[in-house]
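Weekly puzzle thread! Below is a chain. First person to post its structure in token form gets bragging rights.
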Amino acid sequence: MKHLTIIQHTSADYLGLMEDHFEGRRIRFSYFRPFASGGKVPDGSAISDGLILLGGGPWGSVGARIVPNLDAEVGLARMCLMMDKPVIGIGLGAQILSLAAGGGAIATPLTFEVGMAQRQVDDALNGYLPAVCPHIVYMRDRPEPPAYARILSRDAAGHAALFQIGQKAFGFSGHPGFKLAMAEDLVMEFEETPDDPLPKFAALGRMKRQIEDALVPIMTGIIQLTGLMENS
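Winning reply:
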């Protein structure tokens, strides 16, 4: 069975709806929580079949509140890229992936957005990325992918919503498996919160089915391109 190493930056932000898709394919995963007492960033030996870097709520990578252990995580992601191991970055994780790949990040305030992203290339995610799909962002700062990255979709403002580095690395500025409960928990976990989140909660609740439906082809494409089902 394949095994993924997952780094969390807050207790509220996790794989969400993506968990069922990995478990249904018998892909195992372990969470690492560097922010917890006694927690730390795993070393390279802990990465067997791939790395997932999750969101950070109000933590960012270049602005007013930089996540602890940023350099260690950038180094770990860079090692995985060099070894051609799958890397999936979500939110803050996409910023870390961008930095590891030679790109950067742009300082922006903490934002909570519930919108849609538009596909840019027909063969994105092996042709499985929907033409339009939910784009849920709870993030400080935003990734600035390197010039050689392939931009697979963009948000309403024209920023990269999903980008690809090489064959097996993907950065999502929004969380493709985001759940309403995750947003609620993020607001409760930190004193710093986005302005007026209640309307976004309502919009996110109405979008639940769309998120679930879009995640099916997204995960199919990700699994195919990363090879996580091969020899498992």
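Puzzle host: Confirmed. Bonus trivia for everyone else. The longest helix spans residues 208-226.
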